[in-house]
Amino acid sequence: MACPKSDPTPEWTPDRSITIRRGTLDDTREAFDVSMAAVEELFMRQGVAWTLDPDAFYTGLEPLLTHFATHAAEWWVAEDRTDGSLVGYARSIERGGLLELSEFFVRPGRQSAGLGRRLLERAFPPGRGEVRAIVALTDVRALAHYYKAGTVARFPIADLTGTPSASAAESEAARSLAGLEVVSAGLDFVAEFAAIEEAVVGYPRHGEYPLLFEHRAALLFRRDGRAVGFAFVGVDGTGPIAALERDDQVPILLEVETWATAHGVSSLSFELPMINEVAMRHLLGRGFKIEPPLSIFMSNKPFGQFDRFILFSPPFVF
Ligand SMILES: CC(C)(COP(=O)(O)OP(=O)(O)OC[C@H]1O[C@@H](n2cnc3c(N)ncnc32)[C@H](O)[C@@H]1OP(=O)(O)O)[C@@H](O)C(=O)NCCC(=O)NCCS
User: Fold this and answer.
1) What domains are there in the chain, each with its CATH number?
2) 11-28: per-residue pLDDT in tens?
3) Which strands form 309-310's sheet, in the order they lie side by side?
4) What does the pLDDT look like over 224-239, one tens digit per residue?
5) How far, in Å, is the centroid of ligand 1 from the Cα of 113?
6) Is 276 near ligand 1, meaning CB less than 6 Å away?
């Protein structure tokens, strides 16, 4: 299966050995390898330990990357025509009026030569998207490009990682204190998830819910019969997690932790907007640690209530 959009006339960069064309599903693994090489080198430059096993990571990510490959708003790759290898790519997704950059990578050794600029102007075109958002790593060239693309830093994002230890009794006590019921939900509950996400961040991820419900447990929280929060959790990641009331994040996070304990997850991570005071204090209080590096949430305008929202992890899109 190929990406639905084909590009019969790929563009040549001034360096005639590089062609820029639309990505296809067949580029998925090679693009992932470019991203791993670029992030590993960035971590090395920033003095951050690199502990990831790319093959194991790819296995968990494949459904998401396949989804991006087939549903991207824009996906452009840079190919070295001398050997057909991929040297960079940029991709975005769209949710209604939201355009979000999901990936932007150039292979080390090919960076700082203008390739990133050419990829980004195609994958994140100026003027497209009522809201334009990026979960940004702190590579200085990436940040400079994102300001040129009209976005501004809004808040830092912290990866909070810990060993889950909450028990069912603990989370049940927190839920009953807050007057919350929890339902293990299927796709037939999707309208309630979408209504909460719309209220909290403005852009429900209709295209991504089927994937989330298939690969993660979906927990819906109700008070007096009304849906007030939700959480997705799986063995390979958490999020998104949202609550109409900030304080409800405490029982919601305990429930997620209990799910992880019960499913033998040894390391549980959350991508937290650092302005989400309730969740930051709760997780730090439970012994979760901030794993470097921080990333930065950027957008062209303020939107959403990120003090009651936890991002999708691993961090590609919010
Ligand atoms: C970010 C990345 C994709 C950019 O691609 P690239 O091909 O290296 O970038 P380019 O050569 O097109 O552009 C670099 C720009 O940064 C600018 N720049 C370089 N150092 C800078 C600094 N310290 N401050 C501000 N701008 C700087 C350059 O002037 C250039 O701008 P210009 O296009 O206006 O001339 C690439 O460097 C990369 O893969 N980095 C590691 C992974 C990463 O962080 N990806 C972003 C994920 S959110």
Assistant:
1) 11-150 (3.40.630.30), 159-310 (3.40.630.90)
2) 666 677 999 999 999 999
3) 181-185, 217-223, 226-234, 237-243, 309-310
4) 999 999 999 999 999 9
5) 9
6) no
* CA-atom Rg of the chain in angstroms: 20
Between CA 198 and CA 115 the distance in angstroms is 36
> DSSP of 22-46, one letter per residue?
E--GGGHHHHHHHHHHHHHHHHHHH
Distances in whole angstroms, Cα of residue 178 to Cα of each of 65, 96, 200, 226? 37, 33, 19, 14
Cis peptide before 273 (omega within 30 of 0): no
Find out whether the beta carbon of 254 lies less than 6 Å from any atom of ligand 1.
Answer: no
Going by alpha carbons, the residue nearest to atom 37 of ligand 1 is 111
CA dihedral 227, 284, 204, 131 (to 10 degrees): 140
CA of 193 to the centre of ligand 1 (A): 37
Average pLDDT, the chain: 95
Q: Considering the entire predicted model, what is its pTM?
A: 0.95
Shortest CA distance to 310 belongs to which of 276, 259, 261? Answer: 276
Tokens at 113, concatenated: 């030569």
